[in-house]
Write a structure and sequence with these properties.
- This protein is an alpha/beta fold.
- Helices cover 39% and strands 14% of the residues.
- The chain contains 13 helices and twelve strands.
- The strands form three sheets. It has a seven-stranded mixed β-sheet with strand order 2-8-7-6-5-3-4, with helices on both faces. A three-stranded antiparallel β-sheet has the order 9-10-12, covered by helices on one side. A two-stranded parallel ribbon has the order 1-11.
- Helix 4 crosses helix 5 and helix 6 packs parallel to helix 7.
- The protein is globular and about 60 Å long.
């Protein structure tokens, strides 16, 4: 049976599997900030409602300018989008009839949008248990590709490529005519000092896509942005529907960029909970990815039956059936509030205890 391609929407998952829904469902398959929405956004909600009767700004203002200011780039180099997913669809149009290089396991929307636009994909499948990035292999395949997609930090593993590695790949792309699409949706969990955005002027063949929904807990409104050269952004803007960013989302996005204390608190919390969960899983004999985000992936010694057993207990893990290189043997877990993390560990401990001697 075909499982959903993304996390979240647990009720649809139970329905797809023909399973009854437990009284309590804890969804660890989605990876939005466990601390929720910034307090500044909550307090501003009554004023935000004033935007409802009005058409939004066609360029996504004031969000676009706020994103530009945050990264220190001109607004003309920023394209606002209805979530990163819309932007990947817009980007894929550029590669119609061309070849994209994808490094798996990685975010499934790259391939889905590319294929829908008539591009072809070269799949380089790696082993998540091996931490070393196959840089030489990637460079070799870049010579036969029109674009390389990089997810940094990677989804679903949470592993971050070093800035030096990204630079070498970008320089190789300049030499070989291979463009780069760099997805930094989770970079704010790892640290802005690792972002390639400050160096994009050196690499006009590269664009960076960012998401607002993960760090700021606003997945329900869909908001993201792309940064590249003015020429590249102008070409993509022609493919974006008019009023693609709603007025309330644009105002919320601007509010989020000033939430420095909220970002620091989130990073500290996720780092500590991630450390504790990784230690628990490793003690139980699992292989765990070295994540720098608000989620980790793990491979238990025995995976058969674990997913459905957790579902029966009302715990939704992110399956990896649609991730090349993971093929259902791994699971991704989003960091949640302490009480939910406790329930998860207790349920997994029960499973590990029952199956450790099999």
């Amino acid at each position: 049976m075909q499982l959903p391609e993304h996390g979240a929407n647990p009720l649809r998952l139970y329905d797809r599997l023909g399973m009854g829904v437990p009284d309590r469902v804890l969804d660890f398959s989605e990876n939005v900030n466990p601390l929720g929405v910034p307090e500044g956004v909550r307090q501003s909600w009554p004023q935000l409602l004033s935007a409802l009767p009005h058409y939004p700004d066609p360029a996504g203002e004031p969000f676009r300018s706020a994103a530009a200011d945050y990264h220190g780039v001109p607004a003309e180099r920023v394209l606002a989008g209805n979530g990163a997913a819309e932007l990947f669809s817009v980007i894929a149009e550029r590669y119609r009839g061309r070849t994209a290089l994808l490094i798996h396991p990685t975010f499934s929307e790259y391939k889905a949008t590319l294929l829908s636009k008539g591009a072809s994909c070269t799949d380089l499948v790696t082993d998540p248990a091996i931490p070393d990035f196959p840089e030489d292999q990637v460079m070799e395949k870049m010579e036969e590709s029109d674009v390389l997609y990089l997810c940094n930090p990677n989804n679903p593993t949470g592993v971050r490529l070093s800035a030096e590695t990204v630079r070498r790949l970008a320089e190789h792309g300049l030499r070989t005519g291979c463009e780069l699409v760099i997805d930094e949706a989770f970079m704010d969990f790892a640290g802005e000092e690792h972002s390639v955005i400050p160096h994009l002027e050196e690499f006009p063949h590269a664009v960076v896509v960012r998401s607002m929904t993960k760090m700021y807990g606003i997945a329900g409104i869909r908001l993201g942005y792309m940064i590249g050269s003015e020429e590249r952004i102008a070409s993509h803007r022609k493919a974006v529907p008019h009023w693609n960013v709603n007025g309330i989302a644009a105002r919320i996005g601007k509010l989020c960029f000033v939430e420095e204390a909220f970002r620091r608190q989130t990073v500290r919390y996720c780092k500590e909970e991630r450390r504790q969960l990784a230690g628990f899983l490793e003690t139980a004999g699992c292989t765990v990815t070295d994540s720098e985000t608000n989620y980790i992936s793990f491979r238990p010694e025995r995976s058969a039956g674990l997913y459905r057993e957790m579902l029966r207990q009302g715990i939704v893990l992110r399956h990896t059936e649609n991730f090349l290189g993971m093929d259902g043997a791994w699971f991704r877990v989003g960091i949640k509030e302490p009480e939910k993390m406790k329930v998860l560990k207790e349920a997994l401990a029960g499973w590990f205890g029952e199956h450790s001697s099999l």
